[in-house]
Amino acid sequence: MGEQILEETAWLSDTRRLNWLPKFDAIVFDFDGTLVDESKVFEKALLAACEALGIKPPNRRRRKFLAKQHPDTYLKHLLSPEALNRSETVQRFMEAFTEAYDLDRHRHANLNRHAKPLLRALKIAGLKVGLVTRRTTLWRAVPEILYLFSISQMIDKVVTYREAETKREQLKLCLSSLGVKPSASTIVGDTAEDIFAGRALGCLTIAYTKGFGTLSDLLKAEPDYLIADLMDILHILASERKA
Fold first, then answer.
1. Residue 199's closest CA among 235, 165, 172, 164?
2. CB-CB contact of 186 with 203 (8 Å)
3. How many Å apart are CA 130 and CA 140, to the nearest integer?
4. Tens digits of per-residue pLDDT, 85-113?
5. Residues facing 205 on adjacent strands
6. pTM of the model as a whole
7. Burial of 84 from C-beta contacts in 10 A (0-12 / 13-18 / 19+)
8. Which pLDDT does position 12 carry in this prediction?
9. Which of 133, 135, 142 is nearest to 194 (CA)?
10. Rg (Cα) of the chain, in Å, rounded?
11. How far apart are CA 203 and CA 128, in angstroms?
């Protein structure tokens, strides 16, 4: 814990030395994979759902892959075409998945490295911060997780699947709620969907390569920047101001 505090203090000092006024008014983050990683509990929940429906569970490698996918994707991999067409089967699967997820109570949730000092630095710099997530049945857990990691106060607006279904719609709504233009905004995400959404609206796009998306998919989306450390965002914003 002491080393983490020293590291965060060093980063904040570096931010002050940059002494930059932001060219951008807002920055919007994707949730799963970008700020938070709950893939371990997603794996456990997938196993529980398969067991509940009598489905042969995927092997560990495939399970790790599916745990990082949206339900639209992993359901197609785990259920037969006939089962996918039966709404009651899909509902049973998702109910079993959600029940297993709830039992974990975020014990296996992790905040990605440097997420908290980055958010703190962005607020010091005066940027508005938004958050978007395509979680379907699990969207209600987002405020709990933000509170758990003590970052709720650093997020100005959260848009979930309940308000808008696609990432582009979510981003558009988030920016509108923050009162900023897309051209004065940045989106940070770990999947091609995040980058495509930002590009479509005219935002600066930053792809995070340590999340759920693959590097090849991110490269195909053609983001403005690729990063492996969230704190690199500060230096990107500083360089954009000078451009």
1. 172
2. yes
3. 17
4. 999 999 999 999 999 999 999 999 999 99
5. 187
6. 0.91
7. middle
8. 52
9. 133
10. 19
11. 14
